DNA sequence: GGTCTATGTCGACCGCCGTCGAAGCAGATG
DNA sequence: CATCTGCTTCGACGGCGGTCGACATAGACC
């Protein structure tokens, strides 16, 4: 099971895969403890340079997905790459799927839009 | 000197305080090491629940600024609040100014727009 | 089955970071 | 000057987390 545990960062009650942020925009009102905990998990996942490069590599790869072997050249050992990809998966930012010999990662739809909306307060365009 | 060191997260060569992101959108191309280092600093600063609450409290406060005493009720000691506000300052997300007895914090203009653009790829509206 | 490649997991090391109490500093006020 | 309040800095503690080498696992292929 490649996807061990995906945290519920998006409100599933919003129907389909629409961007439903976990929290109001930061400028709307002070976040409470629970909202802050949830949102901080997402930002924290992108708060490491290696993870940010891996995420960007997947997000910008043709077809919207990338094999681990395509993105492993970030200057750290292979176990470390695997470790960071797991963190991104657990944060709900990436999903993974094994196809034959290789494992492909892709960006969880609507996560980018949701995070953008928390920051800017603007509903992001449909992905 | 309240502002000990503000990291240059925005490109000052863009004229004025316009939103000039340090990096291309994550979906455009893989970030290089330097870009990832810079962008990760911003996300990391918001990757702590206490810091996120403090930032949100300042960002949503009337007048766009808040005294430390207005936002200190986040469940940690006052030195810890000060520590986190310093981190947010050093990350370039907040500025501070002493006026008489109190110290006021405000959100660095265009930072929210810049981060949003990195995520969504869309130029954010003027704040 | 045996082996080879691609990933993930384990265990250990170590530095970073969030936390606190105590002390220091800056203005205000008397 | 003395003192009080608001905030920052200091020093210490403890745990989280990034990193690696070694090992385990999953398919592919012979």
TrEMBL record, chains A, B:
> Record keywords: Transcription regulation included?
yes
Which keywords accompany this UniProt record? DNA-binding, Transcription, Transcription regulation
What the entry lists under PROSITE patterns is as follows: HTH_ARSR_2
Source organism, top-level taxon: Bacteria
Q: Does the keyword Secreted apply?
A: no
The record's listing under InterPro entries reads: ArsR-like_HTH, HTH_ArsR_DNA-bd_dom, HTH_MetalResp_TranReg, WH-like_DNA-bd_sf, WH_DNA-bd_sf
Q: Name all HTH arsR-type domain ranges.
A: 31-127
NCBIfam families in the record, alphabetically? HTH_metalloreg (NF033788)
This chain belongs to which protein, by name? Metalloregulator ArsR/SmtB family transcription factor
Q: Give the source lineage, highest ranks first.
A: Bacteria, Bacillati, Actinomycetota, Actinomycetes, Kitasatosporales
């Amino acid at each position: 099971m490649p996807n061990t545990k995906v945290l519920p960062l998006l409100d599933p009650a919003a129907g389909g895969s629409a961007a439903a942020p976990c929290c109001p925009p930061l400028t709307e009102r002070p976040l409470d403890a629970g909202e802050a905990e949830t949102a901080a998990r997402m930002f924290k996942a992108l708060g490491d340079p290696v993870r940010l490069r891996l995420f960007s590599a997947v997000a910008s790869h043709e077809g919207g997905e990338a094999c681990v072997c395509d993105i492993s050249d970030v200057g750290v050992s292979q176990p470390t790459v695997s470790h960071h990809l797991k963190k991104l998966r657990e944060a709900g930012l990436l999903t993974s799927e094994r196809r034959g010999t290789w494992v492909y990662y892709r960006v969880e739809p609507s996560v980018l839009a949701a995070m953008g909306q928390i920051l800017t307060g603007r509903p992001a365009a449909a992905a």
